[in-house]
Amino acid sequence: MFKKITVFVCLFIWGVNSAVYAQDLRALARVDNDNSTIADLSYREMQVELELSQPIPYRIFTLTKPNRIVFDFKEIDWAGFSSEKTLKTEKVKSLRFGAYQAGWSRMVIELTEPMILDEVEMRTDPDQGNARMVAKFKLSNQDEFNTRSGIREEAGWDLPKPIDVITPKQRQVGDAPLVVVLDPGHGGIDSGARSGGKLEKDLVLQFARELKESLILTGRYKAHMTRDKDEFVSLPARITRARAVGADLFISLHADALKSGWATGTTVYSLSDEASDEASKDLAENQNRADLLAGVDLTQQSDAVATTLMELASVETQSRSDLLADMVVSGVAQSIGRLRKRPHLQAGFTVLKAPDIPSILVELGFMSNERDLINLQNQEWRTKVIEGIILALDTWSVEDAAQGQLLRQ
User: Fold this and answer.
1) 250: which residues sit within 8 A by CB, 6+ positions away?
2) What is the 3 state secondary structure string of 323-339?
3) Is 285 helix (H, G, I), strand (E, B) or coil?
4) Is residue 118 within 8 Å of 45, Cβ to Cβ?
5) pLDDT single digits (tens) 123-133
6) What pLDDT does residue 46 have?
7) Residue 318: which pLDDT band, with cuts at 50, 70 and 90?
8) CA-to-CA distance for 260 and 84, rounded, in angstroms?
9) Domains and CATH numbers, the chain
10) What percent of the chain lies above the pLDDT cut of 70?
11) pLDDT value, residue 305
C-alpha cells in the first residue's frame, strides 16, 4: 500500500517514514522503466509517472523558448530508461535525462504546446521503501505559461568561483610545454547523437582520454579535459575551465549525426559568423542549443553574449585558430589517408568563441554514417587520428611560437 505525500511545485521535498529511513539511502535511486510513463490522461491533460527504488528530493519548474518542463532530482541511476519506452503522448517533442551537476540529475520535457502543473505527489511504500512520483499537467495558453515559468537556480552555478587576481595568459613562444584543453562534447543529460546503440558523449569522452594520455606521454604538452566523466558542462563553463588552467589552445571533440543528407569523414571547424554551408550552420545551431534543451535558461544572455564575444575576438586569435585547423586537417590526412572534399569548414559554434584562446572543433566522424561509426569504435583508427593530431600540434606550436616571438620584438 502506497502512502501519499503531496508537494508544492518548485520546492524540494523529503517525505519518508521510519521504515524508509532504515534503508541505505546512500545508493542512487533507480528508475523502473517498465512502470514509468509519460502519457495522456485526456486531450487536455498529461501525466508523468516515475517508479523509483526510493523516495528522493525533487523539484519541478517550467521554462520558455522552447516551452519545457524541468524535473530536478537528487541523483538518479537512469540505466535502462529510454525515451522510446517512456513516451506515449504527442504532447512531447523531445525528452532528455541524465546527470546535471554534482549530486543531481535532470529530466527535461520539451513540449509541443504549453502545459502547466496541475498537481504532483510522491507515494512511498512503507514496507518496500520504493516510491512513485506522479505529476499531472494541463493545457494552458502561452501567456499563463510565460507567467508561471522562470529559472529556479542561480545563473552560472557550474562556473569556477571568481578569484581576486587573474594573470593574463601570455602567447606561447616555445619556451614551455603547451597547455592543451580537450573538450569532449555533450555529457550528462545531453547525450548528443545516438546511433547503433552508441552515444556521442561516450565515444568522444573515450577519444579525449586517449588523446590526453598520448599528449602527456610526449613530454611536450600538458593536457586537461573540460570533463573527465559523464557530466553536464554548460558551453560557457567549458571555456571558463579552459581559461582556468591557462590553456594555450582548445580542441572540442564531437561525432554528430545528420537527420537528413549524407556526410562522412573527419572535419575540422574554426569560428566564423558566416557558416561555410547549410550543413555547418545546422550543426552549429544544434550544438549551441544543447544548453537550452538541457534546461539552462539563456533568455538573458544568448544573442547579446554571442555578439559581444564576436566583437572581442581578435584578428590575431582567429588567424591562429585557422592555422591550427589547417594543420590538424593536414596531420590527420597524413595519418589516416584522404579526408572529405572540404575538411576545414567554419561556423558559429559558441564553444569556439573564447577571444583569447585559439580554438577548433573536430568532428571525428558522423555517427549517422555506418563506416564512421565503426571507425569511432576502432582502436587502431582512433590511434591513427591521435597521431595525426599530435603531428599537427607539433607543427603548429613551432610556427605559432615563431610568430609570437616576432610580435614580442
Assistant:
1) 181, 183, 239, 242, 352, 354, 357, 358, 359, 360
2) HHHHHHHHHHHHHHCCC
3) helix
4) yes
5) 888 778 889 99
6) 96
7) confident
8) 20
9) 3-148 (2.60.40.3500), 178-408 (3.40.630.40)
10) 76
11) 44
Vertex 363: Cα angle to 296 and 65 (nearest 5): 25
60's grid cell:
519541478
- The residues that bridge with 179 in the sheet, in sequence order, are 222
- The candidate with the shortest Cα–Cα distance to 270, out of 308, 325, 313, is 325
- Name the strand (E) or helix (H) holding 225: strand 221-225
Query: Which among 221, 321, 18, 231 is positioned nearest to 241, based on CA atoms?
Result: 231
Phi-psi region of 337 (alpha: psi -120 to 50; beta: other; left: phi over 0): left
* Amino acid making up residue 159: L
Strands 115-124 and 131-139: antiparallel
Q: Which residues contact 360 (CB under 8 A, 6 or more apart)?
A: 249, 250, 251, 252, 268, 269, 270, 321, 324, 325, 328, 352
Choose the weakest-confidence range: 91-95, 169-173, 362-366.
Answer: 169-173
| Best CA proximity match to 272, nearest among 327, 323, 318 | 318
Alpha carbon of residue 315 to chain centroid: 28
CB within 8 Å of 191: residues ≥ 6 apart: 96, 98, 199, 200, 201
Residue-wise pLDDT for 162-174, tens only, equals 554 445 567 888 8
Q: Quick one: pLDDT band at residue 383, thresholds 50, 70, 90?
A: very high
Q: How many helices (H) and strands (E) does the chain have?
A: 11, 20
pTM of the model: 0.73
